[in-house]
Amino acid sequence: MSSWNTDPALLMALAAVLMAGLKYSDRRGVFLLAWGMMVLAFVSPLCALSSAFFAARALHHIIILGVIAPCLAIALPLRGVGAAPAFAVSLLALIAWHLPVVYSAAWNSAVVYWLMQALLLLPAWGFWSAALAADRNEEGFAIAAMIGALAGVMGLIGAVLTFSNQPLYSEHLTATLAFGVDPLSDQRAAGLLMWVPGLLPTGILAGLLARRTWARGLAA
Fold first, then answer.
1. How many CB atoms lie within 10 A of CB 46?
2. How far apart are CA 76 and CA 26, in angstroms?
3. Distance between CA 14 and CA 18 in Å, rounded?
4. Which of 117, 121, 126, 166 has the most CB atoms less than 10 A away?
């Protein structure tokens, strides 16, 4: 589980993303942070650990939603994306990822796995792009409500994972036991990650957006 993911197609895709970002982004420092987090999520040993521990999978999702997506929105904002539809798709993808039947499908199929990763990252990138570009107070308040809904859903998922009295994902039963870790304890650790560290980036961004909206209201 300490190996790095050296899949040629993945490395070529990351190299292409790096070249495009360095060429088109005016915020290269922020872009490089996003790109570095992509390497952490998909190439580093964290990727392998997410196949053994569900807690590592939860951290993987937190990095995508809470760091990579907003950093890409700052460095390479997507234009013409509506906040509401992007938010809806991102939220549905987050919920779907935690349904055991969908999780099993992603586990057993590389196509489904990468489709689910794309559905997690791309709409979140679009949502944060629209959120950071909002220039009216009405939009700011609507986006704040969406962020609150996202936090609520993450908290609910965290609660289900933490307080369930049985493991929900059979894919992690054998691997966690091989490391001497109780599968239910691993699942509960994932729930706690969703609750606390998972909500921290979202909370920070929500606070910054609320501050900007408030300042614009006072200046109006």
1. 20
2. 8
3. 6
4. 126
Say how many C-beta atoms besides its own lie within 10 A of residue 148's C-beta.
12
Evaluate whether 81 touches 130 at the Cβ level (below 8 Å). Answer: yes
Percent of the chain scoring above 90 in pLDDT: 68
Question: Percent of the chain beyond pLDDT 70?
Answer: 89
- Cα(200)–Cα(204) distance, integer angstroms: 6
Whose tokens are 């939009």? That residue is: 139
Residue 157 CB neighbours (<10 A): 21
- Tokens representing 13 are 């895709």
CA distance 95 to 79: 26
pLDDT tens for each residue of 32-64: 999 999 999 999 999 999 999 999 999 999 999
**Rounded Cα gap, residues 199 and 114, in angstroms:** 24
* pLDDT > 70? residue 1: no
List of residues 6+ apart from 162 with CB closer than 8 A: 188, 191, 192, 195
207 neighbors 191 (Cβ within 8 angstroms): no
What distance in Å separates the CA atoms of residue 43 and residue 149, rounded to the nearest whole number?
A: 31
Rounded to 5°, the CA angle 98-94-191 comes to 55
